[in-house]
Structure formats: structure tokens, C-alpha cells
Amino acid sequence: MSTTISGFSKLSKSEKIDWIVSNYLSNSNTAKQTITQYFNADSKLQQLHDEFIENTISNYYLPLGVAPNFEINGKTYAIPMAIEESSVVAAASNAAKFWMQRGGFKAKVISTTKIGQVHFMFDGDFETLKKVFETVKPKLILDTKPITANMEKRGGGILDIELRNKTSDLNNYYQLHATFETLDAMGANFINSCLEQFSKTFKAEAEKHLNTSIEIVMSILSNYVPDCLVRAEVSCNVEELKHKGIEGKAFAEKFVRAVNIAEVEPHRAVTHNKGIMNGIDAVVLATGNDFRAIEAGVHAYAIKNGKYTSLTHAKIEDGVFTFWMEIPLALGTVGGLTGLHPLVKIALNILGKPSAKELMQIVAVAGLAQNFAALRSLTTTGIQEGHMKMHLMNILNQFNATNEEKEVIVNYFKTNTVTHSAVVLELEKLRQ
Ligand code: MEV
Fold first, then answer.
1. Which residue has a Cα nearest atom 10 of ligand 1?
2. Can you say whether the dihedral through the CA atoms of 354, 355, 359, 361 is positive or negative?
3. Ligand 1 binding site (Cβ under 6 Å of any ligand atom)
4. Which of 67, 80, 127, 429 could bridge 93 with an S-S bond, Cβ 3.0-4.6 Å?
């Protein structure tokens, strides 16, 4: 039987917790204590977090880590990462240090255009619609002036609006396809406000000229931004890749083969790209950006040619190993959570208050570094060695190990293989 309630959002926070606990959680005292122990003692800070969303009952913590020693275009960064997966920050730090000794990362922003669309239905002649659109277009731009004035002052705004005929995909379906430059803002609110104004002006004006009705279906930005593109790269002579007793040439060749496999095999490509997103999402989240938008856009880009493929590429040419990635990243360093969440502000300060373009480069590098670290492990020791070492602390915490127990066991597993059962066995021995 399901439990329903009306007016839940009107309850106080404490009433909401009581309702959830009594209806869904068996051990109500402990459950309530668990939920409330994550409240912030500073009531103003707690209220700030409560008001980010609706129906807040507590705070959900993720660790905020830092991966230092990232050299990008000659500048050194410590990159903040918010993530729960135990090996990600360690892997990023290792890759950063490795490449710092080999010339660092190079990154550049290729383009920064964002997209939004008004989707509408029209049952009539396209050529007539096109003429009307050309007549109405200046008014579309004019009517958004109150929204665009500030952005234009700073050098951004609406780049263009096109009428697109989509009737070969869906009967009577057309779009106003608009492009924007939103500078340091991710621009979602700006773009959506412009689009909603376009739709109002367009419907009114077009219906006047056409003498027939237009149905606006929706107006919304697109998270697919193939023209908001950044490139990150590393390269060095293959001999310089010599690492832990493995010859540079042999390592480089195997590494390139691993990338080639992800380029041709979608099952592998998805996991390969997931590893890249480990790095990307962690920085996107730490800097208060929308990781769902980034995920959606990046994966759409990975299938832009009709087959899902690797986001990274690698080659060896004339003895030089090059490893690179081009991905779309619509990021902001002003607006949204960036000015609100105290830890986001700290994360942006750690990065030296980057512009959106600089952040695009940092995030792309974090993704490339993560993929480098994953492929290096996969093609040499295997991934589990490193993963299980990092997972060791999770297992110890699961068994409520004391600090003294942790010290002994971590020391033991410096020279022994970590498995869940081996850790439990060592813990039991220690406790006898
Ligand atoms: C795990 O979170 C990510 C990896 O699976 C990525 C990869 O396989 O390349 C290690």
C-alpha cells in the first residue's frame, strides 16, 4: 500500500521529517537522528541550503577533494573535485604529476556558441512562412532588448535566429533555431527568457501576417552544444613514457590500442567515456555547474556521427605520443550556484576565479587526465590494484574500524593484495 499526502510542501521542515520517518523508516529515532545530524549548526547557512530546492529534509554530503599539480598552458592549478568514488582524486593527482614532468597539459577553447529553440507547428506553405519570418526577425531581436541589454554591454547576446523546416521528420514541425554568446554565464535563464519572448512575438506577428494559427509547442535551450567546444591535449616523446619498469614505446603502443578499441566498440566506449566523466563531473559539481547538462551534451557529442565512440584519441607519429580530446562544455563561472554556495565560491577561488573559457579548459583537462590514469592502469597493472587500495578505507569504515586498526591494516595491505575477504580476515585477526 502506498502512502500519499497532499500539501507536503506546506509542512515545516521538522513536520516533513516526522512524516517521512513515521511513514517510511522503521527505526524512527535513529532515522531522525541520522537525518538531522547533517544539519549545519549555522542556521543561516542551513537555510541557504534548504532553499536551493523544495521539500528539503537534510543535507547530502559528498567529499570535496583537491588534485594538485595540474599544469595547464604553463599555469599550475589545484583542481577541486566533488565526488564519492574513492579512486578518482588519487588518479587525477597521479596523472597531473606524471604530465607535469612531461610538459603539462595544453588546452584551448575552439568555440563558445550556445543554442536554444522555439518548437512550433504550422500547417501551411513553407515559402510564405519563410518570408514572414524574415520580416518578423528584426522585431524578435528588438523585443528581447530588455533581456539582452546587459549581456550585450558585456559583448554577448543573440548571435542569430534561423527558421528551420523539420517537416520531413514530423508533419507541420518547424523551429526557430537561435544561437547565443553568454560569456561567463552558463546562460540557461538568459537563453530561455529570450526564447519565450521570441515565441510570444513570433506567434503574434506571424499569425497577423499569415492569417492562420501557429502552435508554439515549447521554447527551451538545447544541452547539445557542439559549437561550445574545448580541446585538451598532452604529448611527449614515447621514450619519456617509461614508467615503473615498462618501456615507453611498448606502453604508448598498447595505450593507443586501448583508445582504438574504445573508438570502434560502443560497449567499451561507454565505460571509457564514463571514466572521462569521473573527472569532468567532479569538477563541474565542485564549481556549481549543472553536471546533468554536461553529461547529456557530452554523450550526444560522442554519437554525433551516428555511432557511439570514444571522446579521446591517441596517436604515435615520428616517435611522439599525442593524446587528446575535444568535447562540448557549456559552463558558467557567474550566476546560478556559483555566487550562492560557499564551497563553490571556494572551489572557484582555488582555481583563481577562472573565466568560463578557462574553466572549460580546466574541466576538459580533468577529463583527459582521468582517462589517461584509467587507461594506464587498465593496460598495465589492471584497475583493481589501485581501486581496491582506495576502497580499503570504505571496507574498514563499514566494519567500524578504529584509527589504530586502520593504521595497522593499511600498513599490512601496502604489500598484500586487497580483497574484501582479506580485509575482513585481517580485521578479525587483529580484534582477537
Ligand atoms: C571507473 O569508474 C572508470 C573506469 O571503468 C574507466 C575505464 O574503464 O576506462 C576505470
1. 374
2. negative
3. 85, 271-272, 274-275, 278, 374, 378, 383
4. 67
Q: Which amino acid is at 9?
A: S
Mean pLDDT of the chain: 96
pLDDT in tens, 362-384: 999 999 999 999 999 999 988 77
Active site residue 387: yes
Question: Chain centroid to CA 247: how far?
Answer: 35
The cell numbers describing 206, all together, are 506571424
- Within 185-290, residue ranges assigned H as helices are 188-210, 248-264, 266-286
Are β-strands 215-222 and 229-237 bridged in parallel, bridged antiparallel, or unpaired?
Answer: unpaired
Residues β-bridged to residue 72: 75, 105
Q: How far apart are CA 197 and CA 202, in angstroms?
A: 8
Ligand 1 midpoint to CA 274 (Å): 6
> Cell match 580499503: residue?
392
Which residue, among 106, 164, 168, 161, has the nearest Cα to 138 in the 3D structure?
161
Q: Measure the CA–CA gap between 343 and 334, rounded to whole angstroms.
A: 14
Residue of 71, 205, 290, 426 with catalytic role: 290
302 CB-near residues (< 8 Å, 6+ apart)? 269, 273, 308, 309, 310, 311
Cβ pair 210, 132 in contact under 8 A: yes
Q: Is 290 a catalytic residue?
A: yes
Q: Terminal CA-to-CA distance of the chain, rounded, Å?
A: 46
pTM of the complete model: 0.93
Q: What angle do CA 188, 284, 190 make, to 5 degrees?
A: 10
Alpha carbon distance 386, 388 (integer Å): 6
1 pLDDT higher than 60: no
Give one DSSP letter per residue of 333-363, joined into a string: SBSGGGGT-HHHHHHHHHTTS--HHHHHHHH
Q: Cα separation of 14 and 1, whole Å?
A: 25
CA of 119 to the centre of ligand 1 (A): 38
In one-letter notation, the amino acid at residue 284 is: V
